């Protein structure tokens, strides 16, 4: 990826904000990339998507147990909440906040329902991220 | 304050964070201020570094981590006599500030961390470090 994001990618990123899936933290993330950290956005987004997928898998496993450890579930949700806040994935973050409330109440049905919402939001976000990275890659190839 | 105004020997920063995305973002921010960065994945790892004789000028410490939490690690680090190191508690919840400060942290910063807040903190640490070397 180029040292700074290409204008077309920044334009795509701006359109991502209008979807309601992202907030201004996402824009700040893009601005951190420069010559000394040319792959920062790719690394961060890739890490978020991989960790997030793993976390959702763990949550599915934890909530499938006969005896749910809500503290353990909350730990996983808290981790995803933090990661999503840092990359500006607003809807994922807000869903995690709702999830944590159900964990506090030890409400298994609430947790399961929110996990479904979380899964949809997360895959929507990771899909947008992947499209953005693909666009950047295509632009980089085109200017070689 | 811009990154170019930070001068002197590099600040040795320890990031104590179990979420890789946070550690990566904070590392990137701190690198812009020319910090030397070490990452510990939980409070216990951080304490072990001090027990091994490692020295740091500043610690950025998350709260909820496996094995040992941030506040617990901060208490132990201070108990080792590490009174000089600047400790910044970092967490997503504003109501967590008290647990950090009671443990011995100097500052609390909410997540996600703001780039323009980090610079002055690093500059202050650098000034103190360079003054103590004179």
TrEMBL record, chain A:
Major localization listed first in the record, in broad terms: cytoplasm
Modified residue annotations for Phosphohistidine: 78
Pfam families listed in its UniProt record: Hpt
GO molecular function, one term: histidine phosphotransfer kinase activity
GO cellular component: cytosol; nucleus
Keyword list, A-Z: Cytokinin signaling pathway, Cytoplasm, Nucleus, Phosphoprotein, Sensory transduction, Two-component regulatory system
Localization in the cell: Cytoplasm, Cytosol; Nucleus
Record-linked Gene3D superfamilies: HPT domain
Coiled-coil annotated spans: none
Domain HPt: 37-136
GO BP terms, alphabetized: cytokinin-activated signaling pathway; phosphorelay signal transduction system; positive regulation of cytokinin-activated signaling pathway
Domain commentary: Histidine-containing phosphotransfer domain (HPt) contains an active histidine that mediates the phosphotransfer.
Purpose of the protein: Functions as a two-component phosphorelay mediators between cytokinin sensor histidine kinases and response regulators (B-type ARRs). Plays an important role in propagating cytokinin signal transduction through the multistep His-to-Asp phosphorelay. Functions as a positive regulator of the cytokinin signaling pathway. May play a regulatory role in salt and drought tolerance during plant development.
PANTHER family according to UniProt: HISTIDINE-CONTAINING PHOSPHOTRANSFER PROTEIN 1 (PTHR28242:SF47), PHOSPHORELAY INTERMEDIATE PROTEIN YPD1 (PTHR28242)
Protein name in the entry: Histidine-containing phosphotransfer protein
TrEMBL record, chain B:
SUPFAM superfamilies (alphabetical): CheY-like (SSF52172)
Any Pfam family the entry gives: Response_reg
Organism the protein comes from: Lolium multiflorum
Protein name: Response regulatory domain-containing protein
Domain Response regulatory, first and last residues per copy: 12-126
GO biological process: phosphorelay signal transduction system
UniProtKB keywords: Phosphoprotein
Entry-linked PANTHER family: TWO-COMPONENT RESPONSE REGULATOR (PTHR43228), TWO-COMPONENT RESPONSE REGULATOR ORR42 (PTHR43228:SF24)
Family matches, as PROSITE patterns: RESPONSE_REGULATORY
Record-linked CDD domains: REC_hyHK_CKI1_RcsC-like
InterPro entries: CheY-like_superfamily, Sig_transdc_resp-reg_receiver, ST_Response_Regulator
Keyword Hydrolase tagged: no
Modification 4-aspartylphosphate, positions: 62
